[in-house]
Specification:
It contains six helices and seven strands; from the N terminus they run βαβαββααβββαα. The chain is α/β, with parallel strands linked by helices and 186 residues long. Strands 1, 2, 3, 4, 5, 6 and 7 form a seven-stranded mixed sheet that branches. Helix 1 links the parallel strand 1 and strand 2 (27-32). The chain starts with a strand and ends with a helix.
Length: 186
């Protein structure tokens, strides 16, 4: 392996995806779960960068941290960077209720990956997965928004796909851009 990074997350799907994309390119992915403060900001890139900087300082190594937002056009981008809070408080049933009578069901997930070399400022790379929101929940796999989100290029909710299939549906542009950035630095 040419490069080694520490992905700060406890989410197995994120770790599996990172390894699937980065390791064949020569970037070894370690992972650790530690707590970092999550700043309140309207931009997920700022949130991810602040967390990556804090994690890098705590661990004294190069780290990768991410933040994800779910943006619904008919709701002016809500919940956006407040996705986790909305999931805990209103969930997918609440979002479906908010969208009752709305014809625009377009939405997207934006995932921002912040890479921070120890002692330096973080850089960020993003992936966006576009799709639509259904009128009712479908599926038996995944969690949360997977039951109501149909990614472009598919005809059923993410919750209708087993884990291995679902991981391939998400945009991997952020990981690919990160890999290219790291490999150019060699």
């Amino acid at each position: 392996m040419l490069k080694e990074i520490t992905y700060v997350t406890g989410n197995w799907a994120k770790i599996q995806t990172a390894k699937m994309i980065l390791e064949p390119m020569g970037i070894k992915v370690n992972h650790i779960k530690i707590s970092t403060h999550e700043i309140q900001d309207d931009d997920i890139e700022n949130i991810a960068k602040a967390s990556a900087k804090e994690a890098s300082e705590k661990l004294k190594c190069d780290v990768l941290k991410n933040d994800t937002g779910f943006f619904i056009e008919a709701l002016n981008g809500f919940p956006g960077p407040y996705t986790h809070y909305a999931d805990e408080h209103i969930g997918e049933d609440g979002v479906l209720k908010l969208l009752e009578g709305k014809t625009n069901r377009r939405a997207y997930f934006k995932e921002c990956f912040a890479y921070c070399e120890y002692g330096k400022e973080p850089v960020a790379f993003s992936s966006i997965t576009y799709g639509t929101i259904t009128k009712e929940k479908h599926g038996e796999y995944g969690w949360s928004w997977d039951y109501i989100f149909v990614a472009d290029g598919t005809d059923k909710t993410l919750a209708c796909f087993k884990d291995e299939e679902r991981l391939l549906i998400w945009s991997h542009k952020g990981f690919e851009d990160l890999a290219n950035y790291l490999l150019k630095k060699q």
